[in-house]
Amino acid sequence: MVEKRTPIQVGEAVKKVMSHSICGKQELVSINESYGRFLSEDLVATSDVPHFNRSPYDGFAIRSVDSAEASLSNPVEFEVVDHIGAGYVSNKEIGEFQAVRIMTGAQMPMNCDAVVMLELAKTSEKNGQPYMSIKRSYKPGDNVSFAGEDAKKGEVLVKRGTKINPGIQAMLATFGYKEVPVAKKPIIGLFATGTELLEVEDELQPGKIRNSNTHMIIAQIERSGAEVKYFGKLPDDFELCYESIESAIEEVDLLITTGGVSVGDFDYLPQIYKKLGADVLFNKVAMRPGSVTTVAHLDGKILFGLSGNPSACYVGFELFARPIIRTMLNCPKPHLRREKAVLEVDFPKANPFTRFVRSKLTITDGKLVAAPSGVDKSNIVMSLAGANSFIILPGGTRGYEAHTIVDVLLLEDHEGSEWPW
Amino acid sequence: MVEKRTPIQVGEAVKKVMSHSICGKQELVSINESYGRFLSEDLVATSDVPHFNRSPYDGFAIRSVDSAEASLSNPVEFEVVDHIGAGYVSNKEIGEFQAVRIMTGAQMPMNCDAVVMLELAKTSEKNGQPYMSIKRSYKPGDNVSFAGEDAKKGEVLVKRGTKINPGIQAMLATFGYKEVPVAKKPIIGLFATGTELLEVEDELQPGKIRNSNTHMIIAQIERSGAEVKYFGKLPDDFELCYESIESAIEEVDLLITTGGVSVGDFDYLPQIYKKLGADVLFNKVAMRPGSVTTVAHLDGKILFGLSGNPSACYVGFELFARPIIRTMLNCPKPHLRREKAVLEVDFPKANPFTRFVRSKLTITDGKLVAAPSGVDKSNIVMSLAGANSFIILPGGTRGYEAHTIVDVLLLEDHEGSEWPW
Q1: Where do the MoaB/Mog domain residues begin and end (chains A, B) (predicted)?
Q2: pLDDT given for residue A377 in this prediction
Q3: Is B83 on the interface with A (CB under 8 A)?
Q4: Measured between CB atoms, does B214 come within 8 Å of chain A?
């Protein structure tokens, strides 16, 4: 007798998983290692930026009041009493018709309130003393970057849960974050199952294939922002299997197995969940590929039983495991980003269940266009290599025609969706 | 006297840099470390996939000829003579009206040419011997995945220069690439210049700011696929500066300096290039920010003199250094990816030079929409944190109105453009 399983809808299944969301931990890492990590606290301005009034150009700092009468027909001359580069501060008291030669980024001298750009000043010398003259007037504040103009002390500049990009690295340095508070990478345990699996270095043998799921999932885990702990292939023996899983759970935040969750004669995972006393949230989802995806919950840990078919395994990870990982990384939008796209080609296959088609999303004249990235069979690894998205084709249809507007889920994006279902 | 420099157009400047493209090297890395690297050879199928005829379902393998007479009113019975899971091979000789119980992924038994899905077979037992019967006929090949169906031995599956994603990891494993040929990461030397620069851990001082460019560029280098070698801040002394740069060049593939390239009184880079005997390709580009970006060539190495202003520095790296790095990584599309987008807001500022506006690209109803990510001044770090793109506003205009179609360059994308100018 084949076990009858009742499929649940994808959104319902994801909701069940998310209801067991686990709280992530945080840690401090050196700014040199923080690129690509997720902020675990808001990034707050620890000072004004700039923190002093400064010159945005190479030129001459003046008291604007002295320039009031300057015009094309009436140049006004200033005595240049000091000369400072960025990083230096003039300690001269600037008097009437005096100026300081100042370089980009240097602090404005006391009393000065405007900067004349170098190319608008005519320089000269009298008895070894430099002078410059100008032919227009300046208002207070002309060509001055004021303290706090870019950011005010105490302002929240970047929200927690944001992935650190090069611009954020610059901000962290600006505000003195030598140590950066980031989400600790969740540790994701991984087992492969399957008597048919050879290692990557093994010669092919009749009936056996190399284990590709493990390498694929390890990369998916890394892309999601977590860290993998790979325990190897589960032994064929049920008791050993059970013990391996039971002890692995202790060492990880989440546990993923690939294969062994179907209703086949050698699919032991359901029995293992039972013996562990785990609460099986679902063991059949109304989707293709990946309908056998099984998720269970045990003592605050979530066990993901992904299909052994590469594409089903891939989809199962992205739909169910990624959002839990991203939630642990504080992301407010933990799910794959959903957008609309134009279907580029006919997709004549009927869809009794919601179908996730591995697809290549391109942009034509500013519009998203999606096409399947390969033959759509769940055991075909090839279509995954070119996939940067899934086209979602809702169930209960007889196929789709080119130019239909479809929903797509983006795989290489780091924005995410709050809830795409 | 202010030195007069003649600006060249951005495309012309990039072309000059690219004419000095340097050949990248390659190395073999373990498949466990290859995720995110760039293939240095085409990925070729080393075997057929599958490499044997296999069952895509749990079911019974039969000789289709025996099912010819089966119908609803005439069930045909088969003796089940063997039982195999994935990874096992049946060595039974299958005769007339005999079947093998077979699990998903297992190799088809000799003589069998069709699979009956488990749920379509009625199982029974007679004297301890299992039987099954079916009520429809099967054609040769029904429910069989044939050898070579997914990939043929010798086929090129992924081109060199492609960034390795999780799907490609799966393929590498499938084809036994325990060691993966990837482009060696170019080593990018980096110096900061500027008397005003404090370290990230320093307290703020009057007139001084923390060095943000270094941390930003290190992340940009990493994002581009290269590796940084940071030499610290250049000393204030010209001779020491010169010697530091001269010796650093020996150790790296490209050398980047930030700051010191303008025409200010403390900008030493131009003199250093002169003393090194480097061929200055350009020292002024008709763009904002980053017009002072200077690139020089010396003995097969390229020296990038980026502006000290954070935004100018950021743009200079992405436009000029990134494509050289990606070329060394074998990418056929080494430049930032260019797409069309709708400008979301007015941009009233006049553009004497081509302007690269740090911007946030979003998608609305499947269409790209771009808006500036912050105040557009070249010294404003804040706008970089939210930037995932640059809006390109061509020079010689009086500003742009909302809803105009503009070109954008994507920063977080790994596709790239062959030539976006």
Answers
A1: 189-327
A2: 57
A3: yes
A4: yes
Task: Give me the pLDDT at residue A267, please.
Answer: 81
Residue pair B351/B288 in contact by the 8 Å Cβ criterion = yes
Whole-Å CA distances, B5 to B282, B284, B355: 9, 6, 19
- Which residues of chain B from 107 to 146 reach within 8 Å of chain A, CB to CB? 107, 118-119, 123, 145
Just give the CATH number of B10-24+185-328.
Answer: 3.40.980.10
The alpha-carbon gap from B301 to the nearest alpha carbon of chain A, in Å, equals 25
B28-50+149-183 belongs to which CATH class?
Answer: alpha beta
Which one, of B368, B319, B375, lies nearest residue B347 by Cα?
Answer: B375
User: Is residue B213's pLDDT more than 90?
Assistant: yes
Look up the ipTM and state it. 0.94
- Write the residue in A50, A89, A223 that is nearest to B166 by C-beta: A223
What are the sequence ranges of the domains in chain A? Answer: 10-25+185-328, 30-49+149-183, 59-134, 337-410
The 10s digit of each residue's pLDDT in B308-353 is: 999 999 999 999 999 999 999 999 999 999 999 999 999 988 788 9
What residues of B are in contact with residue A207 (Cβ under 8 Å)? Answer: 52, 54, 86-89, 106-107
Segment B45-88, tens digit of pLDDT = 999 999 999 999 899 999 999 999 999 999 999 999 999 988 89
Chain B contact for A314 (CB, 8 A cutoff): yes
CB contacts, 8 Å: A123 with chain B: 1
CA gap B160, B148 in Å, rounded: 23
What's the number of CA atoms in the CB half-sphere (13 Å) around residue A349? 15
Distance separating alpha carbons of residues A160 and A179, to the nearest angstrom: 15
**CATH architecture of structural domain A10-25+185-328:** 3-Layer(aba) Sandwich (3.40)
Look at residue B105 and tell me whether its pLDDT is greater than 80: yes
Minimal Cα distance from A341: which residue of B?
A: B366
Given the structure tokens 């000065």, which residue do they identify? A112
Contact B210 A173 (CB under 8 A): yes
Q: Is the CATH number of domain B59-134 3.40.309.10?
A: no
- CATH number for region B337-410: 2.40.340.10
Give me chain B's average pLDDT, please: 93
3-state SS assignment for residue A294: strand
B51, B104, B375 member nearest A262 (Cβ) = B104
What token pair was written down for B41?
A: 């050879």
